[in-house]
Design brief:
The chain is of the alpha/beta class and 253 residues long. It is 42% helix and 19% strand. Strand 1, helix 2 and strand 2 form a beta-alpha-beta unit.
């Protein structure tokens, strides 16, 4: 009888864990709507409006120390991290907005308590610039009193590990895909944030991460088949360009 009860408890716990609903992260904000654009103030406000778990954004530091939102490393043959802030303001997003400052985004996000900012600090062309970007971002977050409303991701291990070293409370996930959950745990990461193809190829990493207390986020998932698969696998978060579709899918399950 005791064995039966124990088995039922274990099964119940397993169902509870894998029946959890992942947080919805809007990739570069919720931009697939009219008059919006990736990494714009509009896309941020759209993500806040639908109460997504997170609104992901990409940042670079300019030559004069300003942190701006933009995804691509360069435009018209010139790197963003080789531009002054004034030069970046000559760029226009597809909806006509100029490149937002991270300070502006933090101020807007501070008005609510539902949606976190998932800040991706992009790889810069030198380690020194990456270090300056990390320090500037942490300073902005600190002064905005947004530490509990922000999480960090990067493809650069230098960026991630400087974040971990500078702020032991920061939630930092790696995007690269080549490190195992155990390696990430040993280095002090809070989670992994890997491409759907990587997680399809390493299904065992879901359970390994869970055992180590690491979070699992998967990007960039826009189709329902992969969304359902990730829900069933117990992913903690799903990053998508279609956050409303994912929210509706989660409501139906």
């Amino acid at each position: 009888m005791k064995k039966i009860v124990f088995t039922l408890i274990v099964l119940g716990c397993s169902l509870a864990i894998h029946g959890k609903k992942p947080g919805v992260i809007a990739h570069r904000g919720h931009w697939r709507v009219e008059n919006s654009a990736q990494n714009s103030m509009n896309s941020l406000n759209n993500a806040l409006a639908i109460k997504a778990y997170g609104s992901e954004l990409d940042v670079y530091i300019t030559t004069d120390g300003q942190v701006v939102l933009f995804h691509d490393s360069s435009i018209n043959g010139k790197r963003i991290d080789d531009m002054s802030y004034a030069q970046t303001q000559e760029i226009r997003l597809s909806n006509g907005e100029s490149l937002p400052l991270l300070s502006e985004v933090l101020k807007e996000a501070a008005k609510q308590n539902k949606t976190k900012l998932i800040i991706e600090i992009k790889p810069h062309d030198t380690e020194q610039k990456e270090n300056e970007a990390v320090d500037a971002v942490l300073d902005l977050v600190h002064h905005a009193k947004m530490g509990k409303k922000v999480e960090y991701i990067s493809f650069s291990r230098n960026v991630c590990e400087r974040l971990i070293a500078k702020d032991s409370r920061a939630k930092v996930a790696y995007l690269g895909g080549e490190l195992t959950p155990q390696q990430l745990y040993d280095l002090g990461y809070s989670g992994l944030d890997y491409h759907i193809g990587t997680m399809r190829a390493h299904e065992n990493w879901f359970d390994e991460a869970e055992k180590l207390g690491l979070t699992v986020n998967v990007w960039t998932v826009d189709d329902e088949e992969n969304m359902k698969w990730l829900i069933d696998k117990g992913a903690d978060y799903i990053t998508t360009n279609e956050p409303v579709i994912l929210q509706r899918l989660l409501e139906d399950r």
